[in-house]
Amino acid sequence: MPDSARLLLVEDNPADVFLMESALELSGTQVHLTVARDGLDALEQMRAARDLGILPSLILLDLNMPRMNGFEVLAALRADPSLAHLPVVVFTTSHAPADVKRAYALQANSYLSKPTRLDEFLSVVKLLEAYWFGAASLPTSY
To answer: What sequence ranges are listed for the domain Response regulatory (predicted)?
Structure first.
């Protein structure tokens, strides 16, 4: 895993944030985690990080959030040339085929169903670590 791996979790549910933080800690995954509580917060954080040259390496994006949903965030990211390259994994409770199709149409890099138990979150973290922070080449900070 690169030393500079930064994960932005865009999630409005405090319980899911806690599960992800716990899973990362229990797995020993070395990643700098930042949390955005909704879509607008995520865009503000990414624009500020861009200006500081510390963009996230990977974004985990929930779909159902207040103020701006995940689809709107994904569309805004892909429309912004300075953020369009960031890999986005949609991480949601939705299993609806229409949501999967729409996320990929908006150029999501992957779509994962959000688990409900800590052991399942650990499995997701191991998957993220093995693929996104191991095998895949991620953009470095700009």
So the answer is: 6-129
DSSP alpha helices (H): ranges in the chain?
14-27, 39-52, 70-79, 97-105, 118-130
Structure tokens at 17: 């944030």
Q: Are 7 and 56 in contact (CB under 8 A)?
A: yes
- In tens, the pLDDT along 87-102 reads 999 999 999 999 999 9
Q: What does the CA dihedral 110, 77, 35, 17 come to, rounded to 10 degrees?
A: -40
The closest alpha carbon to 71, from 46, 53, 47, 94, belongs to 94
Closest C-alpha among 113, 93, 107, 125 to residue 24: 125
